[in-house]
Amino acid sequence: MTQDTSSKKPRNWARIALIGSLAVNLLVAGLVVGAFARFDGGPGPHSDRGSMGMGAYIKALPPAKQDQVRAASGFFGENRKASMREMREKRNKFEQMLLAQPFSEEAAREAIREHNAFALGFNDRLQDALVTAVADLSDAERKEFAAQVKIAREKRKSHKKAH
Questions:
Q1: Whole-number Å distance between alpha carbons of 138 and 148
Q2: Contact 90, 143 (CB under 8 A)
Q3: Hey, what's the torsion of the CAs at 129, 130, 135, 139, to 10 degrees?
Q4: Per-residue pLDDT of the chain (163 residues; tens, 9 = 90+)
Q5: Between the CA of residue 49 and those of 19, 43, 54, 55, 56, what are the distances in Å?
Q6: Which of 8, 53, 115, 147 has the smallest set of CB atoms within 10 Å of its CB?
Q7: If we measure between CA atoms, which residue out of 64, 70, 69, 59 comes closest to residue 153?
Q8: Triad 55, 133, 153: Cα angle to 5°
Q9: Distance between CA 44 and CA 71 in Å, rounded?
Q10: What is the sign, positive or negative, of the torsion defined by CA atoms of 34, 39, 44, 45?
Q11: Are 45 and 37 in contact (CB under 8 A)?
Q12: Cβ contact 125:72 at 8 Å
C-alpha cells in the first residue's frame, strides 16, 4: 500500500476574502454608476419613455413650461406615482387575462381596451398641454423652441446612426 506523501497546500483565506471583497466593491460601484447613468435624465434609449415620443418637444420648452406640460399630463410629482400604479394595474390585468384558465377572449380584449384607453387619455392630455404651452410662447420664444427641437432631433439621428 502506497501512502500519499504529497502535502496539500493550505488555502490562503485572507487572499480569497480580499478577492471576494474586491468583487463585491466593484459590483456595488457598478450599480451606483449605472443608477446615475439611468436616472440622470441624459440622452439614452429610454429617456423619452414617459413622454410618448414627444420628449424632444417638451425638453425644448422653457423649464416652467416643461413643468406645466408634465403636470397637465398627470405624470408629474405625486400624480406620476398614482398614474404609473394605475398603468401597471391595467397592464397586469391584461397579462392575467392572457394567462387565465379558462381563457376568455372577450375578457382579454376588454382588459387591453382599458389599458389603451388609459394610455390614450394620457397622450391626449400631454399633446393638448404641449400645444397650449407652445401657443403661450412669444414669437421669439417659439423661434428658439423650434431651433431647440431641431438640435434635439439631429442629436437623436446621429445617436441612432452611431448605434
A1: 15
A2: no
A3: 150
A4: 566 655 666 667 777 776 766 666 666 666 655 554 444 444 444 444 445 577 889 999 999 998 888 888 776 667 778 878 888 898 888 888 888 889 888 988 888 888 888 888 888 888 999 999 999 999 999 999 999 999 988 887 776 666 5
A5: 39, 11, 9, 8, 11
A6: 8
A7: 59
A8: 30
A9: 23
A10: positive
A11: no
A12: yes
Q: Which three cell numbers stand for residue 162?
A: 452611431
Grid cell locating 17: 476574502
- Chain centre distance of CA 127: 19
Q: Read off the C-alpha cell for 149.
A: 427641437
Q: In this structure, is the dihedral angle defined by the CA atoms of residues 128, 133, 137 and 139, taken in order, positive or negative?
A: negative
As a whole number of angstroms, the distance between CA 63 and CA 76 comes to: 14
Which cell is 113 given?
A: 381596451
Whole-number Å distance between alpha carbons of 50 and 58: 11
